[in-house]
Design brief:
Layout (H helix, E strand, L loop, with lengths): L1 E4 L4 H12 L5 E4 L4 H13 L4 H5 L7 E4 L2 E3 L2 H7 L17
Parallel strand pairs: 1-2
Antiparallel strand pairs: 1-3, 3-4
Length: 98
């Protein structure tokens, strides 16, 4: 599975923590690392219906999970594709301030 994200995104940092703690070794593509990664993600975001609401609302759409022809913005859906349990709250290491 390929996961598009950025280390400046709290949800992406939480994903990376879970990826490491579960020893999943899923491919994380940091879209802010270089323009090639950003271009690859933007093509996906601009052409997939999965991102329609994200585009409409001015969002970015990360983390985005891609496996074969499946795309989701939901980590638990993505984990179900690879027979992983849903994320437990105890696995979340960073929370948004309210």
């Amino acid at each position: 599975m390929k996961v598009y994200g950025s280390n400046i995104c709290i949800d992406c940092r939480n994903f990376n923590h879970i990826n490491t703690s579960r020893n999943l070794n899923l491919q994380f593509v940091d879209i802010t690392e270089n323009t090639a990664n950003l271009r690859e993600f933007l093509h996906l975001r601009d052409t997939s219906d999965v991102f329609a609401d994200t585009r409409k609302n001015g969002g970015i759409g990360i983390p985005a999970f891609v496996l074969d022809d499946k795309i989701t913005l939901d980590i638990n859906e993505a984990f179900s594709w690879i027979n992983q349990p849903s994320v437990d709250e105890s696995e979340i290491v960073e929370f948004r301030e309210e």
